[in-house]
Amino acid sequence: MTTEMVRIRLMDEGDLPLGMRLKEVAGWNQTEADWRRFLALSPDGCFVAERTRAAGQEQAPVHQGVGYEALGTAVACVFGPIGWIAMVLVDPGHRKQGIGTRLVQRAIDYLEHCGVRSIRLDATPLGKPVYERLGFRPEYELARWDGVAPYVRLESNTRRAEDFDLEAIARLDQQWTGTPRRRLLEYLFRQQPGAMHVVEGPDGLLGYATWREGTVASFLGPAVATVEEAGQSLLDAMLAACAGRRMFVDIPWDNPAATRWAQARGFAVQRPLTRMVRGDAVCDRPDRLWASSGPETG
Which of 12, 220, 247, 278 is deepest in the core (most CB within 10 A)? Predict the structure, then answer.
């Protein structure tokens, strides 16, 4: 099959079974709620690659366009001047045919059309050379930590976030991530009420953290904190909410305090990730990022 036989179209809710099937084959952690969040936040940036269905393939997965076989997905999200690419998934039977590259290029074209100055993604070691060929360069390294959330004693300085906290949470997040993610943070806040926590100081918020359900494990993040004590307390609050359950957390190696926290809580490195950028460098502070929101949105 040549890539000329492949077309790329917008994804919609009818493609949710496709997204779930592909991520399950890949062993990823996303839920249907995650796919719905992508569609809500970036309806024009969610893509499906498909080709004309060959004779004798009547049982192949098909959604839009009778006679088309779905092959893969990609998602591109816009956060002001920053774009993110994620969920690049290709059916195992159609890999190494350039389909993933086509999907990433379509995502790049979409983000550039939206006027972003920087396009970011988190790459696995396998994907890193592919992205380098498309003009991405490494920024810094992260590690996915995997473990069972231990039972911890909650500190009294954390509390559940309220509606009135959202503006301050968004400002703090943008200060240290360099990315205006208010819409994402509000969606996460409303998607799982009570999950997001904050720590306050004399002059305002010192940090926030949240977690969400996953199909393989609960996912801790995003979490941002300006001081070590606040970061530890917030991540412990997330452990308390998920005690006894498997949990993932993605932490930059440039945050040694968060790394020490993960080690002390019995987590182990599952795999490395490389944050990459195409275009302008992003002025962020990975030493203040206690937990990434995941490869989907940083």
Answer: 220
